[in-house]
Amino acid sequence: MSDKELQFEKSEAQFINRVVAFILATGMYTTIGFYLVGLILLFIKGDSIPQVAQQYFHSFGDFFSSLFTLDPRAFLYLGTVSLILTPVSRVFISIFAFWKEKDFKFVGITAIVFLVIVASVLVGSVFKINVG
Amino acid sequence: MLTTFVLMFLVAIFAGFFGALVGVGGGVIIVPALTLLFHLPIHSAIAASIVSVIATSIAGALSYVDQQITNVRLGMFLEISTTAGALVGALIGVLMHGWVLSLIFGALIFYMAIISYRTRKVEDRMLESGGYEAKTDDKIARTLRLYGNYHDEALKREVNYHATKTVEGSLISSLAGVGSGLLGIGGGVIKVAAMNSMMGIPMKASVATSKFMIGVTAATSAVVYFIAGGINQYTVAPVALGTMLGATMGSLIMNKLHSKVIKTVFFVLMIYLGYQMIAKGLLLGFNIKFPGLL
Known about the structure:
The structure holds two protein chains of two kinds.
Chain A: H1 3-45, H2 60-68, H3 72-100, H4 104-126
Chain B: H1 2-22, H2 27-36, H3 42-66, H4 72-95, H5 98-117, H6 122-128, H7 131-134, H8 139-144, E1 148-152, E2 157-161, H9 166-183, H10 188-198, H11 203-228, H12 233-253, H13 259-286
Antiparallel strand pairs in B: 1-2
Helix pairs in contact in B: 1-2, 1-12, 2-3, 2-13, 3-11, 3-12, 4-9, 4-11, 5-13, 9-10, 9-11, 10-11
């Protein structure tokens, strides 16, 4: 491997590393923020809140109205969603980062990983938890 | 109910802290704790655990990516197997009865207790003799440029390494994915074994790359549980925040403690939790009562 190739690889790795680190840090702080607000609201509102948080919001309207009435569940929900989306967006954005570096084999590999995650959305909506 | 939150938060801090000390994610402690102490259904415990695994892996991955030890290309490549495994594992987990999961979990932690007890001196010898440099890349590793290098702080030099047996490494990594989806664990121990013992990647690079992959693997499983309706928001938030906090504290003091004492404590705890999970599974599945069940 020539020095020039090696240098290119190092700069590519550094670029991808920076992108990855930025997404992970943003996602982590967003999640911590939502969770803390949710938990603080939970403590302020105390036992007046519903005992079960299992059920999800039935519609966007339902979700926004609970967000505006400072229902802790809305904030906890946002925290979990942003937490799960952090690695997912890391994968999604990496597709474009590899594209920019003209590393098309890895555009393909990363796209496959993203498709598996998309497939997990389908699997989750078809099958329900066996509570037995 | 607020007391339950505080207790869950404290247990999660302990799990994250202790997990970081022995080099495992908190999942192997979180799932038994939530089912045995808080009597949550195991599916909810697994769902909460897998979400908290994402949280700790992000925190851990960040520090390693900054230090440039992570092999991002290798990680992305192996993620094909780990996410596919996670998808299959989560599907099986969602469909399976809780008591079967309890039994499998109990068996897994017995196994983990035993393998983590064996200490390893092989790594130092490999690094000193330049054993990692001497390996050669296989065809896939060459085409995809999966080799790499990192600066080793202890040795004060660059360590160059190659990737061999990529197919075998991928297959073993997919098992880590299945574990994450089925049982709510990170599966880091399996991924590190695949990279280090199978593919010839140095320990530090394997650990960093494994941390990098765990988030995406766990997210795939978490998506399935989230959409299938297994996630209880009240449980997830204190558990995820607690493990993240505990893992951060644990990684800060890890080097200052005697690893032998920690390993022994971990071994005893795992054997105990393994017994409890199997006893619980047998009780729920066959109504067989074992003494000492929480």
